[in-house]
Amino acid sequence: MSHSLAGEPPSAGRRAAPLTTAVYSAAEWDLLTTLPGRVLVAAAAPAPGRPPREVAAGLAGLDAVAAGRASDSDLVRAVVASIYARHDGGSNPADGLDDLMDLLAACRAVVKVLRRRADPADSAAYRQWVESVGVRVCHAGDATGPADRRFLDRLGGALGLRR
After folding, report:
1. Distance from the CA of 24 to the CA of which of 30, 53, 74, 162 falls in 20 to 30 A?
2. In terms of C-beta density within 10 A (0-12 exposed, 13-18 middle, 19 or more buried), how is residue 127 classed?
3. Is the pLDDT at 64 greater than 60, yes or no?
4. Which residues are within 8 A (CB) of 104 and not within 5 positions of it... i.e. 6 or more apart?
5. What torsion do the CA atoms of 8, 11, 13, 14 make, to the nearest 10 degrees?
6. Which residues are within 8 A (CB) of 9 and not within 5 positions of it... i.e. 6 or more apart?
């Protein structure tokens, strides 16, 4: 008999029942599942004052996305599972990525969705995980320059991780 069936709490902070996407509208879930890829693309894209990225930077970003599979957060694990399940030509991470301002607006929209619908711990875990994607891309290869630090500061601010 498992602990949760015996009335004891699930181990390691995991919930007895898996997170369902029913809490989120289709548009909200799409926003949550495409944001990590959009951050990866934006962090890896050439920009004024930033060195060109090599393949290692993209791979570091993909590794950061995949690291979400081991998260304690049900939300982060569900988002990663959804990202990996998208093999049907669904949304591309670069879809709708016109510029940095659009990305930051998407981050702020995610923060609002999470504030309304997510457990505070899941919200924090998701936002930190998305930021880690950008950090890993920017820190891959050579030293992080001022333009990368500005990008990461703006990303963290839009995700509500900095003031």
Report:
1. 162
2. buried
3. yes
4. 154, 155, 158
5. -90
6. 3
Nearest alpha carbon to residue 31 among 86, 108, 98: 108
Averaged pLDDT, 100-105: 95
Q: Which amino acid is at 19?
A: L
CA 136, chain centre distance (Å): 12
Structure tokens at 80: 């990663």
Q: Residue 144, Cβ neighbours under 10 Å: how many? A: 16
The residue ranges of every structural domain in the chain are 31-158
Cβ(80)–Cβ(19) below 8 Å: no
Q: What is the torsional sign of CA 162, 64, 141, 56?
A: negative
The model carries a pTM of 0.81
